[in-house]
């Protein structure tokens, strides 16, 4: 596939995602996993820091920096036409550095960036970052990851953060740490913007795509599948050696 055809296909995937036409988005971690996902008919994938950390041999996703995430994204965009949601560690506090990192991602065709709220930006700081990003890159969408614990107090605080982020210009909210169907429903009712759901090895036993669609989730991110199977394959390959 020629470069302009690849970019056209990637751009169309982002449009379909924005329009709510892509309801299931798997996680990838390298070019091979991305090619396999594309061959299965998916148009979009997410590149999480957690999976890239495992590929790099790190014990925690906190060890991954933005340069490593950009490098991983570049390798994937070179061999697929997938639209990527790239999780970008906010390991810097400078707005200009964040703009530079997003610029590098836009240069390789990435149009959806995922940030975490863990750095504790104030509402004013976050609004400044988002405003600058939207000024320089009007075609990007921003996903904000919000941590929610199992208590009602924690969920209420998470919803408050989510709505503050949406007022600052964030496009999508992605809650992590929800543990029951009721919590998924609760945040969907009180968050004033589109939500991405987290489906992983733990919650897929009691949570379905149909349930999430009925709750109004924009799309569901499927975590852990590729990287878990790859690890299992390595373990089995060296079992008898």
TrEMBL record:
Keyword annotations from UniProtKB, A to Z: Lyase
Highest taxon above the source species: Bacteria
Pfam families for this protein: PEP_mutase
GO molecular function: lyase activity
Listed InterPro entries: Pyrv/PenolPyrv_kinase-like_dom (IPR015813), Pyrv_kinase-like_dom_sf (IPR040442)
Gene3D superfamilies attached to this UniProt entry: Phosphoenolpyruvate-binding domains
Protein name, per record: 2-methylisocitrate lyase-like PEP mutase family enzyme
